[in-house]
Design goal:
Length: 179
């Protein structure tokens, strides 16, 4: 698997340092309150596991599924969101946890879905942000790293469901992107 990597953008050490900072920031900003973290599957699973353990607050952790890519590195522009959410967000302090904010189509749809259910507050936390790619007027309240405009894998992010288990963020060799 590691032979498929062209270069590493964010190392394990950089990631763990940044996650500790984010966890501390969220812990301080929500001090004295309970929070709900909504992880957007599947890409969030590594980030949420690490971040949630750096947040020293009573936290409810739930998941939603959303997908817009399928087996491709180009967004389809259409988001499939699981709208029948099986948890209550009313009057809760909610943070949506995403692997990457790219065009913003996915998070715009999810944000609208959660807002309709009346949370006390709602913020967005994205591990990576590719601002150059944005189609929707959306920004993250918490961001791990600003990511260059390249398709990246690792730390939960996939290409055709592979490479999620790489412990860092990397760009694949160009020949690995063609199916
Ligand atoms: P958006 O709706 O265009 O913002 O796309 C968000 C989703 O697309 C993310 O949750 C990822 O699953 C996927 N995605 C966007 N960019 C990348 C990338 O560089 N690598 C892997 N997945 C990506
Ligand atoms: Mg994906």
């Amino acid at each position: 698997m590691k032979d498929d990597i062209e270069r590493i953008l964010f190392t394990e050490e950089q990631i763990s340092k940044r996650i500790a900072e984010l966890g501390e920031q969220i812990t301080n900003e929500y001090a004295g309150r309970k929070i709900m973290l909504i992880g957007v599957l599947k890409g969030c699973y590594v980030f949420l596991a690490d971040l949630s353990r750096k947040i020293n607050l009573e936290s409810e952790i739930v998941f939603l599924s959303a997908s817009s890519y399928g087996f491709s590195s180009v967004t389809s522009g259409k988001v499939n969101v699981e709208t029948n959410i099986g948890f209550e967000v009313k009057d809760k302090h909610v943070i949506i946890i995403e692997d990457i904010l790219d065009t913003g189509v996915t998070l715009t749809a999810l944000h609208a879905l959660v807002v309709k259910r009346g949370p006390a507050s709602l913020k967005i936390c994205a591990f990576l942000d590719k601002p150059e790619r944005r189609d929707m007027p959306l920004t993250a309240d918490y961001t791990g790293f600003i990511c260059p405009n390249e398709f990246v894998v690792g730390y939960g992010l996939d290409y055709a469901e592979k490479y999620r288990n790489l412990p860092y963020i990397a760009v694949l060799k160009p020949e690995k992107y063609g199916i």
